[in-house]
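FAQ: What does a multi-protein file look like?

Like this. Sequence, then tokens, then the next protein.
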Amino acid sequence: MEAVKGVALLNCWASPYGLRCKVALAEKAVEYEYREENLMDKSALLLQANPVHKKVPVLIHDGRAVCESLLILHYIDEVWPTGAPLLPAEPYGRAQARFWADFADKKIFDAGIKMVRSDGEVAAEAREVLVEALKTLEGELGEKAYFGSEGFGFVDVVVAPIIVWCHAFEKYGGFTLEAEAPKLAAWGKRCVAERESVAKALPDGEKLVGFLGSLRKHLGLE
């Protein structure tokens, strides 16, 4: 594998999985090299660093690769003690954080992508799953400022990039996050306003809308 000094993150600008890694690295004040990947023409480094899945994100630290975003977050939290821990200190809290992070990936982002990549009944069913999942996640947030019981933490890092995508999903789903899950929408705005790590990492929402539009055209849906 190509020699990489220090820390590097291989990612594609739109990937919510890589964006959460950027947020975590910023929260831990880790200096790193960012390498943008063209997923239509993957670099030799990416293919060598992640030969199993051949996808982003990949964190390279001292010449060793860590793959899969949730595992990367765990690694960042354990290796760099600077800043507040991302995961709660006690086992039950950590288990709950992992559960909701997994929920956000499987029920929210996956449903949103399925909705955008489909039309008709399939898209309608995916939209229903997406909106219901957003409401469920809002229920977990409740009246808290952040998902973490001790403040901004693991679930917040995971979900913040997905919420940006949800604003892009709105265009194709005929719903608004503000109407369906107002507390979650307010939480998303709070993350951007109060956490520099989030504000600097997240892409422009309109750029994501354009990205999804291009995807739909490629699939012959527009």
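And here is the next protein:
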Amino acid sequence: MDFPQLKIGHMVPAVPIMQGGMGVGISLSSLASAVANAGGIGIISGTGITVEDLRIHIRKARELTKGKGYIGVNVLFAMNDFAEKMKAALEEKVDFIISGAGISRDMYSWGKQAGIPVISIVSSAKLARISERLGAAAVVVEGFEAGGHLGTDRPLFDILPEVAASVSIPVIAAGGIMTGDDLAKAFSLGASGVQMGTRFVASEECDAPQSFKDKYVSATEKDTLLVKTTVGLHGRAIANNFTKLITTSDKLKINKCRDCLKNCSYRFCTLDSLLTSVAGDAENGLVFAGARVSEIKEILPVHKIIENIKMEFKAAAAQPLI
């Protein structure tokens, strides 16, 4: 059985797989273009990079895909530079904008004016309905199993059917999606496509440093935990020296404040800790990852990851329904 066809605005990818937008510096032009070239939808994360760097990565991704495939940009509403990054992405004529960590009415009108689809990341049917009403072209529903900041404590497959039943726009399932079996289940529950972040970090083309990827491959089931970040939300990360520090100490010294958030607890600098990991120190910075990261055993090319998922999906789809 072939994949169902995903259509969002002008986008009709060969495979209904969207790569998660992962900051800081994890999903840039290399990973996004590799996913697009493999038939999926690539996302460049605008978090933690300058506006000029965002423009550079959009243009580089276009070069790497030879103008084919679909490339979008993730911009987080919670960041101070949200509007500036979104407008830059629209000026660069990306295929779509995706945003989470809050909802802005402006982003839908800006997208409509530019003729570019805007996709919302949601964690409930209520937020999905609001997003559709405001003009979202699709919604990504993210469950508790996701890596990074979490908007819910409910599992994806509990939320997914509620969201799918509440809106008429495409619904993308995200959080804990790792295999073709997961895709088959997501489609059976009303999803039009899936978003995968964690699995693509352990790819050859991922923009993260090798030390970051190695953390994924070596992680065990006991190595992921939830930490309260300065964003005000819990985030799922891989245990290391930094997570031990922020979960056991009440008195932390902020080495550097990046002044990146609209609202911040200032207990430590979340952005700076992510930049530390991306700079190559995966022990003393945050390493966000999904709940099922321990299932990853090797680093593969993006096209191989997608080919494996295709085979797994066909095998799962061929099984009789119970």
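Q: Is there any per-entry metadata?
A: Some entries carry free-text notes. For the entry above: The domain at 17-207+297-318 is CATH 3.20.20.70 (TIM Barrel).
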